[in-house]
Predict the 3D structure of the following.
Amino acid sequence: QDWIKQRLSEIVQYDRSLRVLHNSFAPVSRLPNELLVTIFRYVSWFKLMRVCHHWRDTILSTPALWAEIDVCKSMDFISMCLERSQDAALDI
């Protein structure tokens, strides 16, 4: 059974890798990150983190997106935003 679990895990990882590779050929994947960030500012970017790894990584590594903080959210969410906003000017 351990061998089967290990093999299944390898297959799942291979499948993920193929999906990432496939998505990298989509025209939207060729947009510069700066343009993606500009677009993300006009939409609910938090939900866009689920679209693909590239968009998630772009959102997570862009402090300005995390600098707009909704104080009606939970303290955990606010703390996460403060941490990820780094040195960006805050909009509370």
